[in-house]
Amino acid sequence: MAQRETLRARSSRTSSSPPQSGDLPYSVELWYEDERELVERVLARASSAALARAIFKAAQGEHPKRRVTLRRGTRLIADTAE
After folding, report:
1. Using CB atoms within 10 A of its CB, is residue 24 exposed (0-12), middle (13-18) or buried (19+)?
2. Is residue 5 situated within a structural domain?
3. What proportion of the chain, given as a percentage, has pLDDT over 70?
4. Among the four residues 36, 58, 59, 68, which has the most C-beta atoms within 10 Å?
């Protein structure tokens, strides 16, 4: 019985839980076509700059005529409108 509890405790420490949104500082945003000032939705969040850049480039390909932005928190990193 004690051995089972030890195994459970060990597995709960090593199991990977999904990252919380606070752990994902980068966001890729899709903007409304007709509204320059409104984000329609956040397409993705990422934990690393490399992953965020890849998602941003993919979003550009998926939405070639739309504004897509890449941010880290409130800081603008890339914008297709520029």
Report:
1. middle
2. no
3. 73
4. 68
Number of folded domains in the chain? 1
Identify whether 24 is part of a domain: yes
Neighbours of 4 (CB within 10 A): 8
Q: Is position 6 within any domain? A: no
Q: Residue 32 sits in which domain range?
A: 18-79
Per the CB < 8 A criterion, the answer to whether 48 and 26 are in contact is: yes
pLDDT for residue 7 is more than 60: no
| Closest C-alpha to 30, from 82, 73, 80 | 80
Instruction: Kindly state the average pLDDT of the residues 11-20.
Output: 55
Average pLDDT of the segment spanning 3-24: 58
Average pLDDT over residues 8-18: 53
Residue type, 26: Y
Indicate whether 26 belongs to any domain. yes
